[in-house]
Structures are given as C-alpha cells and as structure tokens.
What we know:
Elements: H1 7-23, E1 28-31, E2 34-38, E3 41-49, E4 57-61, E5 65-72, E6 75-83, E7 87-88, E8 91-96, E9 99-104, E10 106-110, E11 115-118, E12 124-125, E13 130-139, E14 145-151, E15 154-160, E16 170-178, E17 188-197, E18 200-205, E19 209-210, E20 213-214, E21 221-223, E22 227-229, E23 234-240, E24 251-256, E25 259-260, E26 263-268, E27 271-278, E28 284-294, E29 297-308, E30 314-317, E31 321-323, E32 327-333, E33 342-347, E34 352-355, E35 362-368, E36 376-384, E37 392-405, E38 414-418, E39 422-424, E40 430-432, E41 436-441, E42 444-446, E43 451-453, E44 460-468, E45 471-482, E46 489-491, E47 495-497, E48 503-508, E49 519-524, E50 527-528, E51 531-536, E52 539-545, E53 552-562, E54 565-576, E55 582-585, E56 589-591, E57 595-601, E58 610-615, E59 620-623, E60 630-636, E61 644-652, E62 660-673, E63 682-686, E64 690-692, E65 698-700, E66 704-709, E67 712-714, E68 719-721, E69 728-736, E70 739-750, H2 754-766, H3 768-798, E71 819-821
Parallel strand pairs: 2-10, 12-20, 22-29, 31-37, 38-45, 47-54, 56-62, 63-70, 70-71
Antiparallel strand pairs: 1-3, 3-6, 4-8, 5-6, 7-10, 8-9, 11-13, 13-16, 14-15, 14-17, 17-18, 17-19, 21-23, 23-27, 24-25, 24-28, 26-27, 28-29, 30-32, 32-35, 33-34, 33-36, 36-37, 37-40, 39-43, 41-42, 41-44, 44-45, 46-48, 48-52, 49-50, 49-53, 51-52, 53-54, 55-57, 57-60, 58-59, 58-61, 61-62, 62-65, ...
Helix pairs in contact: 2-3
Amino acid sequence: MAQPVPVLLWAWCALTALAGAAQGSFEVSVSPEAAVVEHGGSVWINCSTTCRDPGASGGLETSLTKTDRKSGSSWVAFRLVNIKEWVSSPQCFFNCDGSTTLVTANIFAYRAPERVVLEPLPEMELGQAYNVTCRVLNVAPVTRLTVTLRRGGQTLHTETFQNHTGTGPDDITVITEITPQRSDHGQEITCHAALDLHGSHFENSSSAVELKVYDLPEEPQLRTSLYIEVGTRATARCRVAGVFPVAGEAWFNLSFGGESLNFTVTTSGDTATAQGEVWSPSPGQYQLNCTVSVGPVSRSAGQSVLVYRLPEPVLEVTESRTLVNSSVTVTCRSPEADPPGVLLQLRDAERLLVSSAPAQPLAQLHLTAGEEDNGREFTCEARPDSGIPAVKRTSARLTVLYGPRMDDSGCPREWIWKEGTEQTFSCLAQGNPAPAVVCTKGGVSASIGVQRQVRREDAGTYHCKASNAHGSASRDVTVQVEYLPEEPWLQTSRYIEVGARPLARCGVAGVFPVAGEARFTLSFGGESLNFTVTTLDNTATAQGEVWSPSPGQHQLNCTVTVGPVSRSAGQSVLVYRFPEPVLEVTESRTLVNSSVTVMCRSPEADPPGVLLQLRDAERLLVSSAPAQPLAQLQLTAGEEDNGREFTCEATPVSGIPAVKRTSARLTVLYGPRMDDSGCPREWIWKEETEQTFSCLARGNPAPAVVCTKDGVPVSIGVQRQVRREDAGTYHCKASNAHGSASRDVTVQVEYLNILGLALGLVGALAALTGLGVGGYMYYRSTRIRNYRLRQQQAKQAEQGKPAEQMSLNGATQNTPDLEHSV
C-alpha cells in the first residue's frame, strides 16, 4: 500500500503553484470525480490537464494500491485495485512550468445487500396488531440504504438510515406493525432493500410471505336437551356463524362429561355446524363443551346436562277379567328414580282418577265393576317431581262379564225402507262375551248384517233374541217399506252450444200423499241448478236452465224425494263449441273479368271436425275435403255475377244437429250495356195518345242515360201526349265511370188523313163507289211512305253503317270510338 504524501511535497507543490501562477495558470481534472466500487474491486482514475508544457508531469497520490499506469499528452491514468477502504480520496496533480495543481477524487466502496430476510408471520387474528420484521444482512454503506415493506402493491413502511454512524458493512433490522383486515387475507408481504450510490442502484428482495387472517366474530351456539334419560342418545349441535376466511377451516372439539364425542361437520355459507350424540350409562350432572378454532382464533361454549333415570311405572289390577258388580282394586306405583321423587297419576280415557301423595310413590283406586267399565283402560302415569319434562306410562284394560242388553242404538225398534233400495237388516246386542242374535219373521230366520234389495214383502215384525253365557234378552223390530209408483222423467236437449241456456225439466207422477211434498235436486256437470217447481194433481215438475262455459260431456241428474223415498234419473248432454264460419272474398268489389277467390273456412270447434259447403242462391258450389276445414272457389267475375250472394255453411261432422252460415255479396263493376229489353230500337205511337219515352241501360254503377232529337234533349220516363212532330230518330247515350254506350231509337207516329176522309164523305154522299175510291187512296199513300223509309234503311245497311244511326228523315250522328253501340 502507498504511504501518505510527505509534507515536503505539499510545500513544494505550494511553491511551484505560486510560481506557476506567476508564469500562467492551468487546470487539472479527474475522472471519475466520484467512483462507486464494490468492496475489493478496482477502478481506473484518469488525471488530465490543460497545461501546454510538453514537459509537464502528473501523478496520483493515494493510500490505495496502484497496479497499472497509462499516459498520454496532457493525461495520465492509474488502476487502483483491491479497494477495501470504504471511503478514500485520491489526489491527481500536475507540474507545469514549475507550478503544481491538485484535484481530489472520491471513491466509495460498497457491499450490495447480501440477503434480505423477512421473518415468518404467524396466522393472524382479525383486528390484532402484529410486528413485521425484515433483516438486511451485510450491506454498506448503510447511509445510502432504503428498506421498503410492501403488502401486495401497497407500501406499508419505508425506512432510510442517513444518521447511521460507521462506514463499514452492517446488518440492518426494520420492524413495522400491521393490524390485519379481512381484505388482507391471501395478500403477500415482501421486503425490498435498495442501495443508491451516486447513480448506481443495487436492489435485493426477500421471499414473499402470505398473510393468513382469521376471524370468529360470534360465539358458538350449543344446542341439546337439558335432560337426557340414561341409555338414550340425544343430538348435540354446535353452530358458529361468520367464520372467516371459509367455514370449512373451522375445527371443532366436542366433549361430554370430559369425553370427546364423535361428530360430523357441515358448512353453509360462512356457517359451520358440528353434530354428534351425547349419552351416559349413569345419571348425574354432566358438562357439554364445544370449542371452535379457525387459525389462531378460538371460541368456546358450554351447557350443563342432567342425565336422569325414570323407570316405567307398574300398574296392577286385582282382577283384570271379572263379573259385573265385583270389587276391583287398581294400583299405580313406581320403582326408585334418580333424581329421586316421582309424581304418580292414575287415569282412564276421560279423566284423572287419583294422584300419589308427596314422597309416596303409590296411587290406588277401588271400584265396583259395572257394565260401563267393560273395556275401560287405566293408565299409570309417572313424572319426576324435580321438574324434568319426562313422563312414563303403563296401561291395563278391565274386562267385565255380563248378560245381553238390547237398545235402540244397536237394534232399532223400527226401520223405514224404500222399495228397490239396498238395505241391511241390523240388530246388535251388548254383552260380554258378545251375545249371539237370532231374528225371525213368521217363524222364518232373517239374515242379519247382509245387504239386500228391499221388496214390499219385507215389511212386517221381526222377533230378535240375544244370548250369551250370562243370560238372554229379546226385542221386536218393525220394518215399513215405502215406494213410488213411477220413476222420474228428464227432458232437455242432448246438444247445447257453449253459452246457450236451454230448459231442463224433471217430472214425476203418482206422488203420495201429495205432489207438493216432492223435493227435487237438479244438477248439471256436478253443479246444482236453480229451478222452479210446479204441481198438477199427483204430478210435480222442476224446471231450470242448463249451461256451461266450456265444451265437453256433462251429466244432467235429477233426484226426487218424498219422505224417505227417492228416485233418480240422469241424461248425458254434450256441450259443444261451434264458431261462426268465416267467408272471405279477395275483392268483394271488383272489375268485370277480374279473378276472384271465395274462401270458406272454420275456426276450431269442440268436438273437432266441421263440414264446410260454399253455395250461392241456386246451388252448391264446393264442399270441404275430410279433415280439411276449408272450401275455396276461384272465378272470373262476369256481369252476371254482380250482386251474387255466396254463403259459407258449416255443419259439425260429429252428428250434432247444428248449422252456422255466413254470407257475402259480390259487386262487379262494368260499363253500360243497352239492349231492347231496356231501350227498344223502335216505338210506334198513335197521335194524341198518352205515351212515355223510355230508354234504360245496364251497368254498375247505374249509368246515366241522355237522349236527344235533332240535338235537343228529350225527357225520359215522362208521360206526354203524342204529336206528329215527335216522330223521328232519337240518339241515346249511357255513361258511367267505366265507359259509355249509345243507341238510336226510331219513333213512328200514326195519324188520320183528313183530305182522304173528306173526299170519302163527299163520295159517300154521291155514291158508295166514291167512298171505296177514297179508302183505297188513303191505304196506298200510307204504304208508299213506309216503303220509302225501309228502302233508305236497307241502303244504309248495304253501305256498312249501323241502323241505329239513321232516323226517319235520313239524318245521321257519329258515335265516339270509346262508346259501345248496341
């Protein structure tokens, strides 16, 4: 190792520095100025200067070991090795022109944290304080050390050591306190050591330690009986709620009388329950204890249990089988119990008979046996008088022997039966042993206890006798048989539609003694009906309404009762649902020649199955196929279909006599049509007669018809007196929204020739021959006029012109192209 710098060197450097200052200053620098070196390591220190003197020389003064040297123009470098001084300050110097300049470097030796140890953590109880200890071993320099304790990603504690004394390595201990919460369970605690040395950073961390947090916020609940009989096993349960972290980590210790019990543990949510059986072969006071542990947390509960002995009581009857009127003693006693002291009570089925006196385990009853005591059951009941809620019972039955007794409860003196019903002749007698009973009618034995159909000849008096080993008894029994001469009749419809309310009648004739005493019960589908009753002579009739809101087979029942006599009648009624059929026309208002579909269908019926038929006013058009509730017709609408009515007719296939119909009318729109039926082509009128000019056209909607003569409108459908000028050709035109049509109508007016008539009269005055000549002239002139008119019309026809366009005077009118001439 190098020796310290001599004092003479300092003095020499000072003198040369002063001289150099006189000659000119220069600078010396060192790199690195502050070096961080691992303890025992090495570092290069470079000294450089700004001196321009080629003869300048430099060096490094240090107590550390130098091994290598390098130099160059204005610099020199030294390698320092095996650095074990924790802090050292080597000095660089240069001599320049007789002057010396110094600069100091700092070297820090360090030792990175050799090991970071986090001491193990115990299992923690929620809310309790615990220390977390971290140890950082063999680290230097401690003043540059930072220790951080973290919980997961959260910093719990950070500690630095700026005030630490000493430069060498040391072991550092950091302690912080933690109070765990439920959210800390499962979190990891880690310790981190960081050494920060002038830009160099060294870290080391401990292994993670998991936090385990436990909690039992509630005391255990212990449940078992406070009293247990010797030899019996009672269930004991120990339950604790709020177990954290999970109920399955709860550990139980269940003991009874100092002995551990076998038990099973079940969990639900945060609740754990231990269940076992407690028992003891000997009486006494025992302690039941339960301890529950989870991690370091324990809770305990205890309960005192009394184990007792209560023997069965003893019941003694002097003569359990005795004759009537004999003396009987019944004794109730108890063997010794633990704890001692037993209350005894002697009871029968009805009441308490006698109790034992205090400190006297005996209860006794004396009685004279009567018939009513036969089968009487006595019970000896024992209870501890210490307050233990226990009871023991022993029972015995007394048998009393006596002769037969007959009364109305077992053998009524009178029976009233209805003819045709099933009845049982019964006659029983009391006695012990049970008496044998024999009944006869007219010396003939009658069956007892056997059901039979009642006949009129069953009426009469029966002599009955009961016997056993202790005597006999007898009684006469009278049987009356009542009857109705006729069965009731029931009248209603066999088929009823849902919602309909038809009448139902139930009547009966031959009611005796009077019809007003007849009582009716009328029901439908199990529900009673409201009804009224009328009577006439010996006949009674009930009448009400039947209905049901749902389809199905229902039973209508009627029962008529007079005194003890009843008659019934029933009838099955089918309540059905039969909806209106649906009739659909794709276009109920359509143009002529359009395609139209008429569809007949039925909603679902109950019972299912509907036959559909599609008709018009004249015939059946189409029927539905089996199991297909649809009938359909397709047609092309013609003028003749306008106003045609279609009917959809539905009939149940089940045979129910019902039919439903729905109708719809088809409207066909078309342009005007004119023909001789509405607008004749020719009218022949006589002058001065009353006539009506008529011209009608077919079409939908109804066309408007306008007629003109020589361009002048003519009244249509108005009666008027015919004049000669009415003769001629009329042009008539019919129009609606779908087109138009036209037609020419010719009117001829016939009248008398006044000139010919006058000549005829003159000739008549002259001679009969003159009259003949005048008549011939009139006839000839009329024929000539008609001939000319027909000639003109024939000529027009040969030229291809419609006859309707020609009038009597030869005038014509042109018809537009869109019109239709008829």
